[in-house]
From TrEMBL:
Keyword DNA-binding attributed: no
Lineage summary: Bacteria, Pseudomonadati, Bacteroidota, Flavobacteriia, Flavobacteriales
Protein name: Dephospho-CoA kinase
Major location category of this protein: cytoplasm
Entry keywords, A to Z: ATP-binding, Coenzyme A biosynthesis, Cytoplasm, Kinase, Nucleotide-binding, Transferase
Length: 196
């Protein structure tokens, strides 16, 4: 089974993914793999250079600041960039999943609902946290300004909209309680796998 895991920036989805990992569940972090594929796949590199120009890469490494500046306020270019990267990540995930032998795997992606990826998952988990907590975490983690953080948040769907598509929601405000919620979900998912 494939369990989708998502949440807005600063919600703590990577922390939640870590708790699943501690329970022995294999975790695939789509954003991390996308970054890796941008460095290793010649096909992706060529597609991005064709779309945005030679400046999109410094040697073999993507020039992330340049790429972000080109697509952040250009929906058409962002869509095209995603259409270069997403299919490659999907193929990579399928190959990875086929090597796993656990009852289920976690597929963690920032824009799981926005791009329809949730439809390929057996269940979907949404990680939420109060906005103020998220802003504080991101200020600490990325040294970003409040305005930058809010601009990024406004680019993502709201938790209300996402929760309509989620099968389960983990409220991540207290790590002990979050861990307990993960354990409970782990039991539920294992049970549902036996009944299917």
């Amino acid at each position: 089974m494939v369990i989708g895991l998502t949440g807005g920036i600063g919600s703590g989805k990577t922390t939640v993914a870590g708790f699943f990992k501690e329970l022995g569940v294999p975790v695939y972090i789509a954003d991390k793999q996308a970054k890796e594929l941008m460095e290793t796949s010649e096909e992706i590199r060529q597609g991005i250079v064709d779309l945005l120009g030679d400046e999109a890469y410094n040697g073999k490494f993507p020039n992330r600041k340049f790429i972000a500046s080109k697509v952040f306020n250009n929906t058409e270019k962002l869509e095209k960039l995603n259409s270069i990267i997403h299919p490659a990540v999907e193929n990579d995930f399928v190959q990875w999943k086929n090597k796993q032998s656990s009852a289920y795997v976690i597929y963690e992606a920032a824009i799981l609902f926005e791009k329809g990826g949730y439809k390929k998952c057996d269940f979907n988990i949404l990680v939420t946290a109060p906005k103020e907590d998220r802003v504080k975490r991101l200020q600490k983690r990325d040294q970003s300004s409040r305005d930058e953080i809010e601009a990024r948040m406004n680019h993502q769907w709201s938790d209300e909209k996402k929760s309509e598509l989620a099968d389960f929601t983990i409220e991540n405000t207290n790590l002990t309680q979050t861990k307990e919620q993960v354990r409970t979900l782990h039991r539920i998912i294992l049970k549902s796998g036996k009944n299917s």
